[in-house]
Write a structure and sequence with these properties.
Elements: H1 9-32, H2 37-49, H3 51-57, H4 62-81, H5 97-112, H6 118-142, E1 146-149, E2 152-155, H7 156-176, H8 181-200, H9 207-224
Helix pairs in contact: 1-2, 2-6, 3-6, 4-5, 5-6, 5-9, 6-7, 6-9, 7-8, 8-9
Length: about 220
């Protein structure tokens, strides 16, 4: 019988349980409360992004991350057309953001796991999960200063939140690698600026791909200079 690469089955089980709990919670809120579908999507958006920390800290193999990304991508596309998981996507919603999100995780795992540099994948995904998620919440509820970029309406409050959260996500990861503050802060500032700029253009949900890839790439390149 074919044996898969050895790693803790408990680790995989806990990771799967965490994801199931996030999606289950969002589905319950979507079906049985007055919380909007957009709000429940943000719960999944933010909560599922933390899975990259499980993968990093628990040394989950790349094949697991790639497999999960492929499955999530298929489910996201199916949910775009069918009412599979309303908390993830709405039928006919003109955004492929959930698909791009799942795809970005697969790309970052494929990129950084073979390099033994999972921290950059973590930066990219967490910037997307927390930065974009909180920016959307702040922009929707407190965005009193709107602006438009190529027909897409954003708010300065939301963009500022994106930049601040991106900085707050990136800096601790860089410092955890032993970087001096004077080295880590400028990199985190550049990542924050790049992430906020990429998030401002979000037509069809493309920011769910450009933000994590761009944030991870710029952190990696600047750190290696």
């Amino acid at each position: 019988m074919l044996e898969l690469p050895a790693f803790s089955a408990t680790t995989l089980g806990l990771t799967a349980l965490y994801l199931a709990a996030i999606i289950g919670c969002a589905e319950g809120l979507n079906r049985w409360t007055a919380l909007s579908a957009e709000s429940t999507r943000k719960i999944v958006h933010i909560g599922s992004g933390n899975i990259i920390l499980f993968a990093w800290f628990l040394h989950i193999p790349a094949w697991v991350g790639l497999s999960a990304s492929a499955i999530a991508s298929v489910v996201a596309i199916a949910s775009y057309f069918l009412p599979i998981l309303p908390s993830i996507n709405s039928v006919g919603r003109k955004s492929l953001g959930t698909f791009f999100y799942a795809l970005s995780i697969g790309i970052l795992v494929a990129w950084f796991w073979p390099l033994h540099q999972p921290q950059y994948a973590a930066i990219g995904i967490l910037v997307m999960a927390w930065g974009d998620g909180l920016a959307a919440i702040v922009g929707k509820n407190f965005g009193h200063h709107p602006y438009q970029l190529w027909g897409i309406e954003k708010s300065w409050e939301g963009s500022a939140t994106m930049a601040a959260v991106s900085f707050g996500v990136t800096l601790p990861i860089l410092l955890s690698l032993g970087d001096p503050v004077g080295f880590a802060v400028p990199i985190a500032l550049v990542v924050a600026a790049v992430a906020a700029g990429l998030e401002a253009f979000s037509k069809f949900g493309i920011d769910n791909l450009t933000v994590p890839l761009g944030s991870a790439a710029i952190a990696f390149l600047l750190h290696c200079l």
